[in-house]
Design a protein that fits this description.
Layout: E1 3-4, H1 7-11, E2 36-45, E3 58-66, E4 79-86, E5 89-95, E6 106-114, E7 120-128, E8 140-152, E9 155-159, E10 165-168, E11 191-198, E12 205-212, E13 222-230, E14 233-242, E15 251-258, E16 261-268, E17 283-289, E18 297-298, E19 304-307, E20 316-321, E21 326-331, H2 343-349, E22 353-354, E23 358-363, E24 366-369
Parallel strand pairs: 1-14, 2-6
Antiparallel strand pairs: 2-3, 3-4, 4-5, 6-7, 7-8, 8-9, 8-10, 11-12, 12-13, 13-14, 15-16, 16-17, 17-18, 17-19, 20-21, 21-22, 21-23, 23-24
InterPro entries: Glyco_hydro_68, Glyco_hydro_beta-prop_sf
Pfam families: Glyco_hydro_68
Protein name: Glycoside hydrolase family 68 protein
């Protein structure tokens, strides 16, 4: 049962107080990996959604790129970085996958789970473009691969990755295969960001992902797609949530089970709402359901969980709600009230490092900051 994120729900945002993401002062977050920009990130998780404790900390996978004059160029060079976050700080463990191993020209966001024995990790990720292409394309494919997990002298290690297998492909009927969109940031289409989830009701496995509707007549045709696992393969199902005619990108969607309910969260930006229609701030959004198949109800009546403050509308992005309801994200451009005027300003303003986590509280169809 597909649920529509409606124009009316989005329009109601303008008439209600907006819970604000905690303010991030410009230059207040020191880079955890100097010389590299870091953004979308996720921890290795247990099958029940809890962050796995590994060697006294969390294994974190982060998109990374060398610091470039224009931080927007990072998307064309993105690799997944492995880091170990402990109470003592962050330890860099290098590129997650070997050079030339991934099927794409870039590695984009995903998720990862560990076996109950903590001896193997499976990565679900987006292969952007194609290996060896002369110019980066916008093609996006979902792949999975697994590696052995070992610990030596307190340092985790992932090795002997299996050959990447395409999890599931866009069908061109429900989910668009054409990723071009218009080529500009915020207009490209989606088949990316796979997030693994195990339904506690029956143990069924799912992948949810950012998608675009194939049969839409609108350039704003974002959706949260889903595939169900079974028999060693994934089968595409109709989207959980669509924003046809409302929003182009429901990014990094993920599921959290809390208090016998299902919560679906995603991130989006003000600039990807439909021209001439209602919009919300760049922020964390979500819906709740009694069953994974829906129907889904927008949290707080609108879908908005929390947004960047009005005086810092692009300070952070790519929020991920963890099993304990803590929320992680990355520092984008704190200190700016709009898009940078030039590349030099963009570089000065860009944080490119993990933001301080915060927590949310869920109460049925209400969500608030703790």
């Amino acid at each position: 049962m597909t649920t529509i994120w409606s124009r009316d729900a989005v329009a109601a945002i303008a008439h209600r107080p907006i819970p604000e993401v905690p303010h991030i002062a410009a230059q207040s977050m020191a880079p955890v990996l100097p010389g590299h920009d870091l953004w979308d990130y996720w921890p290795v998780q247990e099958r029940d959604g809890r962050t796995a404790e590994i060697a006294g900390g969390a294994l974190q996978m982060l998109l990374s790129a060398p610091v470039l004059p224009d931080p927007e160029s990072r998307h064309g060079l993105a690799r997944i970085r492995l880091m170990h976050e402990t109470p003592h700080g962050w330890r860099d463990l290098g590129d997650l996958l070997p050079d030339g191993f991934a099927p794409g020209s870039r590695e984009w966001s995903g998720s990862a789970i560990v076996t109950p024995q903590h001896d193997r990790v499976t990565l679900y990720f987006t292969a952007a473009g194609h290996r060896g292409e002369a110019e980066p394309s916008f093609d996006q494919r979902l792949f999975e691969t697994s590696a052995t997990l070992s610990i030596a002298d307190g340092v985790p290690r992932l090795a002997d990755w299996s050959v990447p297998v395409e999890s599931v492909a866009a069908d061109g009927q429900i989910y668009s295969r054409d990723m071009t969109g218009g080529g500009a940031i915020g207009t490209i289409k989606a088949f990316r960001d796979p997030a693994w989830f195990c339904d506690p009701a029956d143990g069924a496995e799912y992948l949810v992902f950012a998608a675009s509707l194939a049969q839409s007549s609108s350039p704003w045709n974002g959706a949260i797609g889903v595939a169900r696992g079974g028999g060693g393969q994934w089968t595409l199902e109709p989207p959980l949530i669509t924003a046809d005619g409302v929003n182009n990108e429901l990014e990094r969607p993920h599921l959290v089970h809390s208090d016998q309910r299902y919560y679906c969260f995603w991130s989006t930006q003000r600039k990807v709402f439909a021209d001439g229609g209602p919009s919300g701030p760049t922020g964390l959004y979500g819906m709740v359901a009694e069953h994974l198949a829906g129907p889904w109800t927008p949290l707080n009546g609108t879908g908005l969980v929390c947004g960047n403050p009005p005086d810092a509308p692009i300070q952070a992005y790519s929020w991920l709600v963890l099993g304990d309801l803590s929320v992680i994200s990355f520092v984008d451009r704190p200190g700016l009230t709009g898009d940078p005027v030039d590349v030099a300003e963009a570089r000065r303003a860009f944080g490119g490092t993990p933001a301080a986590p915060f927590r949310i509280v869920l109460d049925g169809n209400r969500a608030s900051l703790a």
